[in-house]
Specification:
Helix content: 25-40%
Strand order of the largest sheet: 1-7-6-4-5
Strand content: 15-25%
Radius of gyration: 19 Å
Shape: globular
Order of helices and strands: EEHHEHEHEHEHEEEEHEHHHEE
Distance between the termini: 22 Å
Number of helices: 10
Length: 328
């Protein structure tokens, strides 16, 4: 409302952490019946990082520290930590609480969300809602995964896809406008998280599963068909609601599952693939960590800048999918 000191949620810092160990396609071909060419042509993946000494919370903490440093935010000023992960070392304590301990954010409320590859998008949406509700001013949202520990390394249809890593963002709910001015937090010309579109379809959930004692199992064709249909629909939803066209977006940051999926989404939106940066060739599918890892990489390399209009879109187990419209 006019005349109120409204809040909006801005991304003010990014960070990432990748394990040191690199596992190449050629090395995988000596472990399972596959080849570098087979993997690259079907997925776009060439390498992935594999955790050895690292844990989900140690990587999450390192990514968080980088994001805090970049945003010039003290850990003690963080009110909320949400960790998106489906590969936590413990059922409890939650990963966010362990990250809190590592970074010294003693005043933060902490919890995890488990939505697999869509987890970071859902966690961002939750943090945004809590900030706009007024109880949180600064938040850390972290995607962190050790997918390598959940794989059957004799199953070539799955083990070639995944990698480990973590990414993080610092969110700020303090509007930069002077008191008495309208923040316009819901409009596309304002910095921050503008809109969200989140969905799940549990009736198809069993096409992608991972149990307590069972490795990741996936019907790849069904997941592919789901992703190339639902992701463009979700993106179009947030665009239409904000009177935007696909061409208005500077950069589309999608979950890094498969290059073919990203190419199909770009084609359906009638856009050049250049608007869809990707790094799965280096890291594979890092599940909930893939979007924040790519976001941090793009920010570090100055490939995105203040004022850019972004779409972040995730998809995966659940089945789940969703998109966020963000102005940097």
């Amino acid at each position: 409302m006019k005349g109120k000191y409204n809040m909006r949620t801005r991304i003010i810092g990014t960070g990432s952490c990748l394990p040191e160990k690199i596992l190449t396609n050629d090395e995988l071909s000596r472990m399972v019946d596959t080849s570098d060419e087979w993997i690259k042509t079907r997925t776009g993946i060439e390498n992935r990082r594999i955790a050895k000494e690292e844990t989900t919370y140690s990587m999450g903490a390192e990514a968080a520290k980088e994001a805090l440093l970049q945003s010039k935010t003290a850990a003690e000023d963080i009110d909320l930590i949400i960790a998106a992960t489906s590969s936590a070392e413990y059922a409890f304590p939650n990963t966010a609480s362990l990250i809190q301990k590592e970074i010294g954010a003693d005043g933060a409320a902490c919890f995890d969300v488990s939505v697999a590859c869509s987890g970071f998008i859902v966690a961002l949406n939750i943090a945004d809602a809590m900030i706009k509700a007024g109880g949180v001013k600064k938040a850390l949202v972290i995607g962190t995964e050790i997918m390598s520990g959940q794989l059957d390394w004799s199953d070539r249809s799955v083990c070639v896809l995944f990698g480990d890593g973590a990414g993080a963002v610092v969110l700020d709910g303090n509007c930069q406008h002077d008191k008495g001015q309208e923040c316009n937090s819901g409009k596309a010309n304002a910095s921050g998280i503008i809109d969200a579109d989140i969905h799940s379809d549990g009736s198809r959930g069993l096409v992608l599963t991972c149990g307590k004692d069972t490795p990741v199992n996936m019907n790849g064709q069904e997941v592919f068909k789901f992703a190339v249909k639902k992701v463009p629909e979700s993106i179009q939803t947030v665009l239409k609601r904000n009177n935007l066209t696909a061409d208005d977006i500077d950069c589309y940051i999608l979950h890094q599952a498969n290059l073919r999926i990203i190419e199909s989404v770009a084609k359906r939106l009638k856009l050049d693939i250049e608007k869809f940066p990707h790094n799965m060739d280096k890291y594979g599918n890092t599940s909930a960590a893939s979007i924040p890892i790519l976001l941090a990489e793009l920010n570090r390399e100055h490939r995105i800048k203040s004022g850019d209009l972004l779409v972040l879109s995730g998809f995966g187990a659940g089945l789940s999918w969703g998109s966020l419209l963000v102005r940097l």
